[in-house]
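Sorry to interrupt, but I need a hand with the structure work. I would like you to pick a protein and set down its sequence and fold. Please put the record directly below this note.
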Amino acid sequence: MRVAHVSGWLDPERRSPAQLLDAWPTLVDTAAAVARCGADIAVVQAAHQDHELSRDGVRFCFVRARSPTRWQRRLGPWAWPAPSQWIHRIRQLEPDLVHLHSLSFPRHAAALRRALPRVRLLVQDHADHPPPGWRRALHRRGLAQADALAFTAASQAEPFREARVVSPRARVFEIPESSSKFTPGDRAAARRETGLHGDPCLLWLGHLDANKDPLTVLEALRLALGDLPDVQLWMAYRKAPLLTELSVYLDAHAALAPHVHRLGPQPHERVERLLRAADYLVQGSHVEGSGFAIIEALACGTPPLVTDIPSFRVLTAGGRAGALTPPGNPQAMRDAWVQWARGPRDEQRAAARAHFEKELSFDAIGRKLMRAYAALLA
């Protein structure tokens, strides 16, 4: 089976191919996982220079593409034309199946279908959204060419179907877009290194914005103080449009302030140690395309206590590897925290890691992709 993983995303930082493989490790790891399952796989990536190399049993073909204009970059990837050299390199590989990353590249999907009319085309969601208004016609012409779509949760395909930008005949596979190489570690050592503490010790990873809803999490924390007097919430974030609102809330609830610690931005390598130190990951998201923080937490054996949205439901096996509560419901969130905090934490951590290894590791994703490819080629 010859498979081509292809991406039209052009790095705005203009890094070299070798630098990109280090900066985008999942570009390597997902393809390598499929290669370990027996596929002959190549990755064709739009880049600022031509270069080819091999790593972990995968051939990486970086193909020089013209940078999008300022106008095209402002409009988004849907406005970027598919580079002819990129299409030509994919054709040279003579793949049986092409796996296109992102539903935001309809022009690339259309060009691939014209160039490879007999080749199966799978398009993978990467936190994409159905386009508004007149853009739907362009997306429809491209994405309707796909034989199959991959989402973290199958129900995430419904908005695209309702917008009529994908074919109703396209198959849908439940496959997360990536995984993590994080591992469990000594919790006591991680706490000494990071300074995290609490009983339970809760970790927030994500922007402080309306979608991730930190104010609901703070309200749940306030409600939980009576049952969990030693609880501590540690908040790591980059973008923080609701930071002022969060500060106002803490000023209004003086008893809560000593239990909330704002860590701000954290290097990715430190996130692993934070997750090892925490008892639970907490999030209040209303919508997510996938949930990298959930995947990373489970990789570390840290159960996620999160909201009941489609992607989180799949990542936690319907709540068996963590708790699920309705978005915007602090009382339900509080109840879940109290229930889990009273449970056997070593067993909880072991179950979280076992679920990750079986369903969410790179090897698991490789197996799921191979099953999807085989089904399409059958």
User: Anything to note?
Assistant: The longest strand covers residues 40-47.
